[in-house]
Design brief:
The longest helix has 31 residues. The protein is globular and about 100 Å long. β6 and β7 form a beta hairpin. The termini are far apart. The strands form 4 sheets. It has an 8-stranded mixed β-sheet with strand order 5-4-8-1-9-10-2-11, sandwiched between helices. It contains 18 helices and 16 strands. By secondary structure, it is α/β, with parallel strands linked by helices.
Length: 528
């Protein structure tokens, strides 16, 4: 069977190691595991920025943040950036959104170019190149009457002004008072909805509705789930399915708080880091995080059953990933932002139903893979050739086919502009100076944070990334990693208006073949 359609499932803030196929000791995820058992699980996959917006813009463009320009949350993706939809549509494949993007449109750019948001082009430019079936970004503190999920809850009889907050993301105490999910102390309270009314089943329901009516032409459907991103409130039975004993031990050491790197120290002092460094907070919040993941797995199981029952599973590629991870108290940190594995490393599983992938089924690939590699993989699945002058990722097809790969990247990169974070103000960095860069090889992991010294970890002797060698690095290592960083920086693909084939055509005109001559003595080219 050949692949016709693509389901691209993305979770929000899901750690790479909170799946049973990745070794979690207590959290069982059999449906996601099925994808790994029948596809390829990439064990060294890294996002191009450890925060929602920039990471997603890289996924959607196949390009690094320093190239596409959306370097922090709420930075618009500039008009003119080619997205996955732009690459797929000429190949006859629709790109459709069901869920979150964290996209902020370049309103000023659209206005300057006279692009109406109400036009087809304007709508796609505003939505990362997708045709929107359902946009649901979550995090709605105020009532949004035009928001589909709130309309759904209202139709189920919830009459709050904002049932997203008051019901789906808040619980009730013994006196019936609302206990808001914005506060971690309220995590154990069950959300005031039934399990099938949660955000995850709602998005899966909407995705199934799309697939049921979408057989006319090939499609890529991006199912983008808001969970297990906070607010950490889950409906029953997921709210109390796990307890503190089910949480893996923290990965941290007291040495990490003794004269830490300045940027690391500033992030350790953020409110979320102080909270997750507290045992009571962690024991309260993480079990609910796990419950939300369990609900995701159950809903993916329901989606897989639908595909099987309707005969679509054998013609649908399924990619499963996350936009970034979550420290959950590891390294004395909460949230994401920095480049330790809990934050920047993500689950990535690709199930390819085609017979050409039979040799790789159930394998684990430890190559250094980047999130931007999915875009060229999808383009190739649709029958295209990734545009080499635009796409900065590399197709994963050799790994999916079980073929030998002669050359692959020696280092993976991630970057982040922390200008809008408290750390930037504490460190006195200028508005254009809050730059962080990760370089990661199989042996070394470094964070470069000018003007400060780098952080450095030897992954061979210190796989848990606890011993920062940046102040006294082994001879030659920093120079080696800087060379990787320089090579990466010099190869950014900013000249996107001329393709390789166009360059070859221009080269063919050298030497007067177009009737234009310069700097030559005569037609024969001989000198006097």
């Amino acid at each position: 069977m050949q692949t016709r359609n693509i389901l691209w499932i993305m979770c929000d803030q899901l750690r790479w190691d909170y799946l049973s196929c990745a070794g979690h000791p207590t959290l069982q995820t059999p449906n996601i595991d099925w994808l790994a058992e029948n596809g390829v699980r990439f064990s060294n996959a890294f996002v191009q920025s450890p925060i929602c917006g920039p990471s997603r813009m890289s996924y959607y463009t196949g390009r690094y943040p320093s190239t596409h320009g959306a370097v922090a949350n709420d930075w618009p993706l500039k008009v003119g950036e080619m997205t996955l939809g732009d690459h797929l549509r000429p190949l006859g494949m629709r790109a459709v959104l069901c869920g979150k993007t964290h996209m902020r449109a370049d309103v000023e750019g659209m206005s300057r170019l006279g692009i109406s948001p109400d036009s087809v082009i304007g709508a796609r430019v505003s939505e990362c190149g997708f045709d929107v079936w359902e946009r649901h970004d979550g995090l709605y503190p105020d009532p949004k009457p035009d928001q589909g999920y709130n309309r759904f809850l209202a139709g189920r009889g919830y009459d709050a002004a904002n049932p997203w907050h008051d019901n789906a993301n808040s619980g009730r105490d013994a006196e019936g008072r609302i206990r808001s999910g914005w506060f971690l102390e309220n995590a154990p309270f069950a959300a005031a909805i039934d399990a099938e009314e949660g955000e995850t089943p709602y998005i899966i329901d909407r995705a199934i509705q799309f697939v049921e009516g979408a057989d006319a032409e090939p499609w890529l459907l991006h199912i983008s789930l808001i969970k297990p991103h906070w607010p950490l409130v889950a409906p029953p039975p997921y709210n109390d399915m796990y307890g503190p004993k089910d949480i893996p031990p923290r990965n941290r050491s007291e040495a990490e708080r003794i004269d830490p790197h300045p940027v690391f120290a500033a992030f350790q002092n953020h409110a979320e880091s102080r909270a997750y460094s507290n045992d009571t907070v962690r024991d309260t919040a993480v079990p609910v995080y796990m419950g939300l993941i369990k609900q995701i797995d159950d809903e993916i199981g329901r989606l897989l059953d639908f595909l099987r029952q309707t005969g679509r599973l054998d013609s649908t590629m399924i990619a499963f990933c996350s936009d970034h991870g979550d420290y959950l108290g590891d390294h004395w940190l909460g949230e994401k932002d920095l480049f330790h594995a809990p934050s920047v490393k993500v689950p990535l599983i690709v199930y390819d139903p085609s017979s050409t992938a039979d040799a790789s089924r159930g394998t684990v690939c430890d190559a250094l893979v980047e999130a931007i590699d999915l875009a060229p993989t999808f383009i190739e699945t649709a029958g295209g050739v990734p545009a080499a002058h635009v796409i900065e990722g590399r197709s994963l097809y050799p790994f999916l086919r079980g073929e030998p790969v002669a050359e692959w990247r020696e280092a993976a990169f991630s970057e982040y502009d922390y200008v809008i974070k408290e750390a930037g103000r504490v460190l006195g960095q200028g508005l254009r100076d809050c730059k962080l860069y990760m370089v990661r090889t199989h042996r070394w992991f470094a964070m470069f944070a000018p003007p400060f010294r780098p952080m450095l970890f030897d992954l061979q002797s210190d796989p848990n990334e606890l011993n920062d060698l940046g102040a006294t690095p082994p001879a030659g290592v920093i120079e080696e990693l800087k060379a990787h960083l320089l090579s990466w920086a010099l190869k950014r693909k900013s000249a996107t208006t001329v393709s390789e084939s166009q360059i070859e055509e221009l080269l063919a005109f050298e030497g007067g073949t177009d009737g234009i001559y310069y700097g030559v003595w005569n037609r024969e080219g001989a000198l006097p």
